[in-house]
Amino acid sequence: xxxxxxxxxxxxxxxxxxxxxxxARGWVPATGGNFSARLSPERMLITASGCHKGELTEADxxxxxxxxxxxxxxxxxxxxxxxxxxxxxxxxxIGGALHTHSVANTLLSRRYERIRLAGYELLKLLPGxxxxxxxxxxxxxxxxxxxxxxxxxxDAHMKQDPATPGYVIAGHGLYAWGATVAEARWRxxxxxxxxxxxxxxxxxx
Length: 205
Ligand SMILES: CSC[C@@H](O)[C@@H](O)C(=O)COP(=O)(O)O
Ligand SMILES: [Zn+2]
Prior knowledge:
By secondary structure, the protein is α+β, with helices and mostly antiparallel strands. The chain has one domain (about 10-205): Class II aldolase/adducin N-terminal domain (L-fuculose-1-phosphate Aldolase), CATH 3.40.225. The chain is about 35% helix and about 20% strand. It has 5 helices and 8 strands. It has an 8-stranded mixed beta sheet, sandwiched between helices. A hairpin with a 3-residue loop joins strand 7 and strand 8 (about 175-180). Helix 2 (about 80-90) runs parallel beside helix 4 (about 145-160) and helix 3 crosses helix 5. The protein is globular, with a radius of gyration of 16 Å. It starts with 7 loop residues before the first helix and ends with a helix. The structure holds 5-S-methyl-1-O-phosphono-5-thio-D-ribulose (MRU) and zinc ion (ZN). Zinc ion binds near residues 101 and 172.
C-alpha cells in the first residue's frame, strides 16, 4: 500500500488541536509558541507570526520552504521559523515540531544549563528509550533574538548528539518534534509533565 502525503487541511487540524490542548494547559500564553508540520520533502506548513495558538484557524497557517521562505503568500511566518527549518533539514524523518512557553520550562531553564530527567515512566515516550530506568538530559540554550544564530547553535548540538529528545531555550520555551504532529504532541506532553514534576519536587525540598 502506498502512503499518501498529508494534506494542508489534515495537518492544520492536527496543529489546531495541539494549540487548543496546550492553551488549556497554560503552555502557550498570549501569542507564545509556534507549530509546524512537514508537507513534503521540501515544504512545511507553519503558523503565521503573532497568532494566538489556542484559537488557530486554517487561515493562520502558511506554506514555506525549508529555508523559511513563505510560498504564495505575503503573510509573515513565525518569528522562529528558522528553528523549525533546522529540525526538518537535520532529519528527513521529522514530520512535526511544536514550541511551548510553560511556567515549568521557563523556570527550570533559567536555573539549569541542562534539565536532568531520571526514573520517569514517561521517559519511554522519548526517542530510543525503552525503560523508566534511564536518564535524559534536555539541553538548554541561551535565548537569542538572532534566530539564525540560535538555529546554528542548536544544529551543532544535534549533530554532536543526534539523540537529543527536545531542547529548551532559557527563560523562553521548549521545542520538541516527532515523525508526526501527534508524536510531537505526545513528546511535548511527556516533557512538560516531567518538567512540572521537577519543578514541584524542588518546592518539596
Ligand atoms: C511575542 S512573545 C513570543 C515570541 O517572541 C516567540 O517566542 C513565540 O513563541 C511566538 O512567535 P511567533 O512569531 O508568533 O511564532
Ligand atoms: Zn517562543
